[in-house]
Write a structure and sequence with these properties.
65 residues, mainly beta, four-stranded antiparallel sheet, globular, WD40_repeat_dom_sf, repeat, nucleus, WD40_repeat_CS
Length: 65
């Protein structure tokens, strides 16, 4: 996995089947990873200032086991 542009990772959330990982970091972005391939699937951005990026819950939909 590539780091959050050299910034610390604040939180991680695994999907129920442990295939996907959602992370948030000091770069003000959340990233979705496929743990089978190690590839980044999506980047969620929008914060412009330092914020608490912790997740209360994450919901994964689709072919979830």
């Amino acid at each position: 996995l590539k780091p959050h542009s050299g910034h610390p990772v604040f939180t991680v959330q695994w999907s129920r089947n442990c295939r996907y990982l959602l992370t948030s970091g000091g770069d003000h972005r959340a990233r979705l990873w496929d743990m089978r391939t190690g590839k980044e699937l999506m980047v969620y951005s929008g914060a412009t200032t330092s914020t608490d990026c912790s997740f209360m819950t994450a919901t994964f939909v689709g072919n979830e086991q």
